[in-house]
Amino acid sequence: MTNSPGNEGKWFAAAKSAELYREAIELANRTPCDPKTLTRAARDMKDKEPLFALEAGIAALRWLIAGYGYEITGLDVKEAYNFAMESASNAGYQDETLARIRTMVEADTSGDRFVSRILGPQLGIGNR
To answer: pLDDT for 16-27, tens place per residue?
Structure first.
């Protein structure tokens, strides 16, 4: 499945469509996937499969922090966060998810700290 570099997003989408949610998330965590694809999955599945959606949103944020994605804006970061948190609320994991996101954002050591600058104020994390 992962023998086709550059097709990770297609494999993720195919696994999601086949309702292989665990496999889709494992793939998204193992190989870089387009954060926008992951955010759309979180948005689309937040009510139907909230645990899958929250993991997709978390993966989107992780890949955004790592610098993946094309033409990323602050709105992309906010959407990934908002859909992850909505999903977490639907699944009853809001506190745990907030703590996971806060830990990821605090550990952001990217050059421009883009995600940290966008989410930091909302999470109560100051700019370093």
So the answer is: 878 888 988 998
